[in-house]
Design a protein that fits this description.
Layout (H helix, E strand, L loop, with lengths): L1 E4 L3 H15 L5 H11 L2 H7 L1 E7 L2 E9 L2 E7 L8 H12 L4 E6 L4 H6 L3 E2 L4 E3 L2 E9 L3
Parallel strand pairs: 4-5
Antiparallel strand pairs: 1-2, 2-3, 3-4, 5-8, 6-8, 7-8
């Protein structure tokens, strides 16, 4: 089941767990520290982003968040990856987002899943504030 949620401690813990297990290795120490600081800004995140959680038997297994036409959060627990939970979250949020195009700055870890789901690279990998991302776009029929 997917439903709209607020960024809270449960979401924070899931994001941090997936970040540390899958993504942190691609960030510098400064990038990791910056990202973790952003995760502590609950009020800001809730007032500027829309979040949806995917639940399996009342357990939060994935979260996706967006702001305007940009996906800003996309995390699925490592033990639930590869089981179509990410696909479900992306499909759900693409229907909710209003713009013709949807953008994301994908981590190197998530690049393959975004490509598999129809996102296209807009540019090669860049590093800003110790954080490596690849800008991608999804457009057309949804």
């Amino acid at each position: 089941m997917i439903k709209e949620i607020e960024y809270n401690q449960e979401v924070h813990d899931l994001v941090l767990e997936v970040f540390e297990a899958c993504i942190a290795k691609d960030y510098s120490m400064a990038g990791q520290a910056y990202f973790k600081t952003v995760l502590e800004e609950y009020d800001y995140l809730n007032s500027h982003h829309v979040f949806y959680g995917l639940f399996e038997k009342d357990k939060l297994v994935g979260v996706i968040g967006y702001q305007d036409d940009v996906i800003t959060f996309f995390y699925v627990r490592k033990d639930f990856q590869g089981k179509s939970y990410g696909r479900q979250l992306i499909a759900y949020v693409l229907k909710k987002m209003k713009g013709e195009y949807v953008y994301v700055d994908a981590s190197p870890y998530a690049l393959a899943i975004y490509e598999h789901l129809g996102f296209k690279k807009m540019e090669e990998m860049k590093t800003v504030d110790g954080i490596k991302t690849i800008s991608m776009v999804y457009g057309g029929e949804r």
